[in-house]
Amino acid sequence: MTVLKSDRLMSRKQPTQARSQATVEAVLEATIQLLLHGGSSALTTNRIAKKAGVSIGTLYQYFPGKEALLYALVGRHLDKASDAVERACQAHRAMPLAACSDAFVNSYIDAKTGNPEASRALYHASTELDMKDLGSGMIARLHRAVRAMLFAAQGGKFADLDDVVLTWVAAVTGGTRQIFEEDDTIARLPVFRTQLLQMSRAYLEASTVTAVLENCVAIIEAEDLSD
Amino acid sequence: MTVLKSDRLMSRKQPTQARSQATVEAVLEATIQLLLHGGSSALTTNRIAKKAGVSIGTLYQYFPGKEALLYALVGRHLDKASDAVERACQAHRAMPLAACSDAFVNSYIDAKTGNPEASRALYHASTELDMKDLGSGMIARLHRAVRAMLFAAQGGKFADLDDVVLTWVAAVTGGTRQIFEEDDTIARLPVFRTQLLQMSRAYLEASTVTAVLENCVAIIEAEDLSD
Amino acid sequence: MTVLKSDRLMSRKQPTQARSQATVEAVLEATIQLLLHGGSSALTTNRIAKKAGVSIGTLYQYFPGKEALLYALVGRHLDKASDAVERACQAHRAMPLAACSDAFVNSYIDAKTGNPEASRALYHASTELDMKDLGSGMIARLHRAVRAMLFAAQGGKFADLDDVVLTWVAAVTGGTRQIFEEDDTIARLPVFRTQLLQMSRAYLEASTVTAVLENCVAIIEAEDLSD
Amino acid sequence: MTVLKSDRLMSRKQPTQARSQATVEAVLEATIQLLLHGGSSALTTNRIAKKAGVSIGTLYQYFPGKEALLYALVGRHLDKASDAVERACQAHRAMPLAACSDAFVNSYIDAKTGNPEASRALYHASTELDMKDLGSGMIARLHRAVRAMLFAAQGGKFADLDDVVLTWVAAVTGGTRQIFEEDDTIARLPVFRTQLLQMSRAYLEASTVTAVLENCVAIIEAEDLSD
DNA sequence: TATGAATGAGAGTTCATTCAT
DNA sequence: CATGAATGAACTCTCATTCAT
User: Which end of chain D is more exposed for a tag (fewer CB within 10 A), N or C?
Assistant: First the structure.
């Protein structure tokens, strides 16, 4: 499920031979390494080529420009994460709400935790270039997967499913990102995960039609009493 | 409450005279305009100076470099937002938990909504330079303010207050950022706010010692039954 | 009478200060020198800057690119030549046809001969880039000037003035160019000039209405005899 | 009648086999196509090879470099044109002067008109590289052919045949080139041809010894009268 | 002999910053 | 204090050419 790309961001040639494949792999890997090490300001095409052990010309045989290289890199990572989350969501269809809740939170954090440094580096890179479409594409995939899972979950219909999905996905992905971006909070990731699981359960539970109903009743009763 | 800065990022001279103040103001304003208009790649010191109507030399009289300029700009915006949230939190000390919850969410979103375009532009700018300390500074202020508010809130002690603060602040700030960054979700900001209010109430409620206790009891009973 | 230019070819700033003027002059002069010495393949912006004794950055302050630099250079030379020819044509209005003929040929060759090496160098340079508009602009000016001169000349109306102008101008400018481009013919320029004067006189004389008429009569008589 | 070439410009191998011939043909054809389509700046060896349907390595088997490729291409076209003009000149030996005049002009313009776009493209290409020898070679052939024709023409001996040949050939070839190079004059090629025929006849007629003599007599008489 | 992946010197251009005026 | 011409290191990207397969 690749997002449509403009020509400027398309890969120049598909590496068919084994040698080519290795080259592309080396370039992408070198890019991540540089991103991790020196930040995005130290990321130059010549440095990438040198680190990858190829000539600058070779790099440009496979990527039409620096932007395209980063685009490919970010796309690949986001796709990998999206895949993982999608699989988890599909595996939990028709399960109890709490299990569904945990499934999304855990699979998302796991995906990001797989290579946390890389995740951070790519976050930064993607913000600089115009890669909103990539991010949007991933968010859209998450929305679909989560929506389908919640729709089929045991133990609760939602009054406004789309709104819940929007908010939950934003809170989980955004919150995780926030934790990742601070050097002094990343150590507390396990704590964050536990709390995020609890927050999600509580939120979803409270957004169920029955819960909403109860809440309304409670409010009305309270008003009656206060009269 | 200014964050500590290295010399490289310090403003060169405190503009005491009225004319100087106007110059600094013009430069900062021009920077935002360019950021909004052309993105961070079109942001050059020469362009800023021209747009501000001053010479490039003058710009360097007040800022030791481009980085410092952006640092000042971002810091100012973050400070403004932090101030607003701090005030709201202080105003709600000793109030019921739900009110506290709403206070933080609403004040934070309001602060960001004041000039949403500028917020987005500055997000991008701050990511490129090494401004983690600014972001961290803001987050630290929010943590303190929220912690104090929750600590004094009616209706609940928290078993692990710091963990709750960490998670809640991350989810609210990160979630909001996520909504802001997508062109197609920003329109649904009102919906997001409503849901985020609900999510926050549910989470805080569920993190109360009494709630946790009830939950434990429920689990134990369930286990007893299943025996 | 400047030709309209696209933004890409426009000079970046008009040098108002004396220092700037000198810089621009130095750059243009250096460009010609390099063109003369090494041909167009040795013409790089960095070499130009070095030869001009300025930094590469300075060059780009005044010209948005290499193309624009050459454009300005060629335009300036063509304008100078056009001016000279225009003046000569205007000075010979209402003179005998032979004098008019000589005026154009001589003024054109003189203009090109002023700095023959530069002329050759710029011919080459202009061919590479898209400077047809400059050449066309000059040709158009020549057409107008020559037409006005011939229209007012003593001793002959032309049956098809525009056609004569087109052809004469092409033959004179093209022929001269041809002589300039060969190393071994440029030495014979004086001979060429003499012959071109004669060719021009003969052509214009023969294109006069009276000459054409005589010619027709002669042909008809010849046909009568052959019957 | 090939011009002498340096090693660098020599074709690497004479393609004797049919397959080789086809390859060379394809490469040369592809070169023209690219020249016509994208101009000389879009002409790269890799693109030529791809368009020709051969690998870049194969291209270098037959041509030692890009320059040699263009050299061969231009040489071939110039040779073709030269052949045509030579044939025409030889066919008109011992004919009346007017017929000789027409023969050269018509055969030259016809040769260029055969594929006007290609002519223009090759003009540009040849200017960039050091192909003066090719152009000179062609001009030399034309000089010889025209000289021989005029020498044997009925109705006139020339006082300074070589000067006439130099000038006439320059005017015809240069004038034609000028017409070809402007987009807005190429449409008037037929008109130009007619006028060039007339100009040539008039010039040659006037360069005849008898004509020159008459002219001298006329001038002397005029001087006598004015005494 | 044909292939095409790899090469790398060098091209044009930008932009944060300085300093003589 | 303000100016803005000048700087030049560093950047992205091209393309003629080679050579292992």
Answer: C
